[in-house]
Write a structure and sequence with these properties.
Length: 318
Amino acid sequence: MTGMLEFVVRVVGVLVAFLVAPLLVGQAEHKVMAHMQSRLGPMYAGGFHGWAQLVADGVKFVQKESVVPAAADKRVFEWAPIVAILPYMAALAAIPLAPGLVGADLDSGLFFVLAVMSIGVLGSLMAGWGSGNKYSLLGGLRVAAQLMSYELPFVLSAASVAVAAGSLSLTGIAHAWNPWWLLWQLPGLVVFFIAGLAELQRPPFDMPVADSEVIFGPYTEYTGLRFAMFLLAEYAGIVVLAALTTVLFLGGWSGPGPESIGWIWTVLKVAFVSVVVIWVRVSFPRMRADQLQKLAWQGLVPVALIQLALTGIGVVVF
């Protein structure tokens, strides 16, 4: 009975975190971008600092009709938002906040999280194919090309940390971390973060959804709550990327004070990485498709391979 109760508590905890954290990131994006770009609009809704902006967005999406185009593959079209968002909830369940504070402490947690994050991109592919729209299909094909290019450096940089720690368990990696990894694994951190942004199709890697070129790409035909689910999936992806970056490269719960407050350090680090993701969106212009491919294959992949090789040498020698 105790085991069943613990299972229910863990599931509820993961579900609450999944429902709350992406909304907080969405609210933060409104405010951070408003400050960085001197936007006045997001600061008015609800009065003080525009606290009700996210509520207003939610009401707007609920009021809009969810339309299914006549030429669409209805089943694929309707399932695409669900396929896009659910893998991130599964990934969040395997990322630890602190020792013992994790939805599912898996021996191969890193492998599991990387695998399910890749599945999430299938939602964009399904949306592009199922919409019955040539622009949407073009956006879906761009998603596929981008995923194929950046999956390799993303996995290689994560593998470097797993080799250094001697474990595929995210909890084990966080336990093995020590501060000098900030220098030793720094190239891997840069590669992992950039490749993660590209996997999530975040600026400056948002060519598949570029409104000025392909009218929001795979999501052109989506309205109402279905469209909102894609936005929520994007913010959930930011949370997962920030949490995974924190555990792999920033020490997870490591910080001053007793281990009992380690979860606070994890949350603060995740919040910091999430703000950096937003800052990158505001600061860098969108890349061209050829620049994106060149960065992946001529820049990130070689750096990730060198990092992996140096990590292997370091583990053997030291």
